[in-house]
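pasting for the record
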Amino acid sequence: MTSHLQEETYVTRLNDPEIHSKMNELGKKMLLHCGGHFPEDSKIPVKLLTQLWMAEGLISLGQQRQSFIGSLEDIGYSYLKDESFLRIVNFSDTKEATYPSASSAVSINNVRRMAIHLDDKADRLVPPRDERNGRLSGKLQLATLHNLQTLLHVGNSHLNDITELTNLKKLAVQLSSPGKVLTSTSNTLEGISSLYVHNLVGIQRIVEVSQIVSRCHNIYKLDLNGPTVELPKDLQYYPNLTKLRLCRCFLKENQMSVLEKLPNLRNLSLQSNTFEDSVKTLMCSKGGFLRLEFLSLNYMDEIDEWTVEEGAMPSLCRLHISRCRGLTTFPDGLRYNSILKELRIMWMPRIFYGELQEGGEEFSKIHVPSLVFGEACD
């Protein structure tokens, strides 16, 4: 099986050639995303794909017991053939977006995974004319998709519809315009396990970012991209949050103390401009990040010093550092970590490499089974 599966199985066909072409491309990207970002044209073992879907909660042992199909891998095969597994719907430059026909080969109400691409001009979804006897009598909202589990790239104007999706597990929101905010008081969002919020507007929408995150108390994975400034104050009380990625959030300096108090955080990725430009020192305090196992620092040019106190990150076993051009020394506090198994350093300043290599001043600090040095940057 290759990653360029027949897109027509998954992509809604529309008469407009341009829209159909765009949706084909979206279908390819979604298939690659569902398969775990495999390179295009690479072979994807169904067994591995099944394991990824199991981790995401799309396939469970309970389904196997209730099914006559056979093994979990067989269920994975059946999903690949099931047209209701994935639908791509893309609308652009249109005020009124016509919803896929319920009389088509796949009933839209049975779809479990959908990517809705609506720009700000599309303010409503309506049934096709031939299903309303030529009249557009009413709106068909996202809220009608009660079986939907994954919804990607939905705009902020549809946030209140999302609160009606009782089976939603994975959500990606794009804040792309001022205006509508989340006003519903429904607790449905607490069922979401994976949340991605992309703030495309800027600092004027930071309240909405915090508002959305604060409604999803049971997430295990959180990805924030764009101005955030401050994390929700109760984030440390999220019981399941184990994986966090931050990029271009421009956090205040005191937010590092919020991060290191997250009790169950195991995987942390800090990307470009995680902190505001005035933050030059990354401080990991004693007793902080107690359960953190993996840390990635990438493109953090704003940081020129990293301090790790003794007793910080006691569970850290994998550390990746790349393209942090302001860092020139390895933190002294990591010499006290006896369980670090993997250290990967890529595209760092030559002086950083020199200190860590045999004969360098920092060489005695590192004792890891797997040490990988990539190319240096000038």
